[in-house]
Amino acid sequence: MTIKSARDFDTPAQHYDDLWRVFRIMAEFVEGFELMGNVGRAISIFGSARTKPDDKYYKMAEQLSADLAESGFAIITGGGPGIMEAANKGAAEAGGLSVGLNILLPMEQTPNPYQNVSMEFHYFFARKMMFIKYAWGLVCFPGGFGTLDEFFESMTLIQTHKAPTFPVVCIGKDYWSGLIDWLKGKVLDEYHNIDPEDMNLFEVTDNIEAAADFLRKNAGQKVVKPPPHFRPINGELMSPASRK
Length: 244
Known about the structure:
Elements: H1 13-36, E1 42-46, H2 56-70, E2 74-77, H3 83-93, E3 98-103, E4 117-121, H4 124-133, E5 137-140, H5 145-159, E6 168-171, H6 173-190, E7 203-205, H7 208-218
Parallel strand pairs: 1-2, 1-5, 2-3, 3-4, 5-6, 6-7
C-alpha cells in the first residue's frame, strides 16, 4: 500500500483538530504583529495579578510606569489586575501608551480599565512573543509562576542571543534575593550550568528612580551581541554577579 497522506492512517479526530489549530495560532501572531508594530520604544512590565492597590509594589509599579511614559516609553503588561493594573494605570494617567496583552484563562482574567491599546490571546506562547519582541527593556516585580516563567524565558532568549540584550530590572531585593542566592550558589558555582556573565544580564533594586534612570539610559537601542555588562548607578542597581 502506498501512503499518500496522514489520512491514510487510522488517525484520531484530535489529530485533525491540532492541524486546524495552526490557523488560530497564526491568527494570533498576525494580529499581534499588526497591533504591536507601531508601538515604538516600549518597556514590558511583569508582576503578580494578586498584588493589591495598597501594596507598596503596586504603588512602585504605578510610579515607574508614569516616569517611563513621561520619557516617551510605551508600557506593555499582561492587561490583568495587580501589578499589571498598576503599570497600565501609571502609563495611562501620565498620558502615555498603555498596552494590555490579555490572556483568556479558565478561571478568568478581568482586564484592567487602564489599557488604551489591548488584545486578547488564547496562547501563552504567542502572548510572550509580543512581550519580548516589542520590548526595549523589561521590569519584573514580585510575582508567581507566570512572572517567573516570563523572567526565565527572557533570560534564556537574551543569553542565547535569540533576543536583543536589552536591560532587565527586577524590583524588590527582598523578594529576589533568595532566587539570586540559589542561581549563584547552586546553578553557577556548584553545578556550573550557567556562566558568570549570565548573572550580569539583569539588575536588582528597590529604588524606582534609579530603575527608571537605568532603563532610560540603556533601553535606547536594541543590540544583539555581545551581552551587556551593566554597571550600578549610584550604588542603587546591583548586578547579581557582584553581590557579596
